[in-house]
Amino acid sequence: MWFPRLPSDRVLRARPVEAPFALVQTQANAERLFCLNPRAEAEGLHRGMALADARIYCPALLTAPADPGRDGRFLAALRRWATRYCPWVGIDGADGLVLDVTGATHLHGGEAMMLADMRARAARAGLALRLGLADSRGGAWALARFGEGVAPAGEPLAALGPLPVAALRLEPEMVTAEVPPPPPEGDLIPLDPPPTAPSPPPAEAQGDAGDLIPLQPVAIPVP
Fold it and tell me: Which of 4, 29, 89, 186 is the most buried (most CB within 10 A)?
């Protein structure tokens, strides 16, 4: 489970607004946007943007101070709520949960129905939610943040292959360039044909040491 707007959703659940809204946090002696609602993003604003610049682009922007402590307590409450789906639920970063649903999906009608129920409950609570389901924790993390969906059991590349490099959980500064599209199937690891032993020359072309040093016939006397 990934809650991409957890901080702003938490605040707007108590005081809904219909205008562009953002939480602001002081970073490096400057006020910057910390988390935005969809209306603010539609105005071209983004996380990390200086508040002064954001007000130029969007004079109607409403703001409130960010409170990471309350965000953490809210995420802990969501962790307890998520135990309705499985016994083991852990906190993943500042805005995510990881669930081990092994052996539990059938209790909710299968994977598809369980994910649909998660989305519906989050929507009723006013929370943006993205989901990923895979055999591995890393695969589920990547799908929730960059693709959303289910990776087929035993065939994760079918869903994970098209995702960007950032899905590898690299540090942001390491993702510095666009990766070219993958080559066609079969060209990922091009192999030269295996070496073969040279064919022997035709019988008439074969020689021996005598071809290198011509020998003269020698008569052997008979006693």
Answer: 89
- The DSSP output letter for 22 is E
C-alpha distances out from residue 87 to 11, 18, 104, 105, 182, Å = 28, 37, 9, 12, 39
Burial (0-12, 13-18, 19+ Cβ within 10 Å), 43: middle
Amino acid at 186: G
In whole angstroms, give the CA distance from residue 185 to residue 17.
50
Asked if 35 contacts 54 with a C-beta cutoff of 8 angstroms, the reply is no
Say how far apart CA 128 and CA 75 lie, in whole Å.
13
Q: Are 22 and 33 in contact (CB under 8 A)?
A: yes
Cα distance between residue 113 and residue 93, in whole Å? 26
Give the 3-state secondary structure of residue 150: strand
- pTM for the model: 0.74
Between these two residues, 75 and 188, which has the higher pLDDT value?
75
Are the C-beta atoms of 43 and 58 separated by less than 8 Å?
Answer: yes
Euclidean distance between CA atoms 39 and 25, whole angstroms:
19
Max avg pLDDT among 101-105, 128-132, 182-186: 128-132
Check residue 168 and give its pLDDT.
79
The C-alpha atoms of residue 56 and residue 61 are separated, in whole angstroms, by 10
The pLDDT score that the predictor gives to residue 210 is 47
- Is the confidence at residue 88, as pLDDT, over 80? yes
Spatial distance between the Cα atoms of 8 and 73, rounded to a whole number of angstroms: 14
The shares of helix, strand and coil residues in the chain, as percent rounded to the nearest 5, are 35, 15, 50
Structure tokens at 28: 């490096």
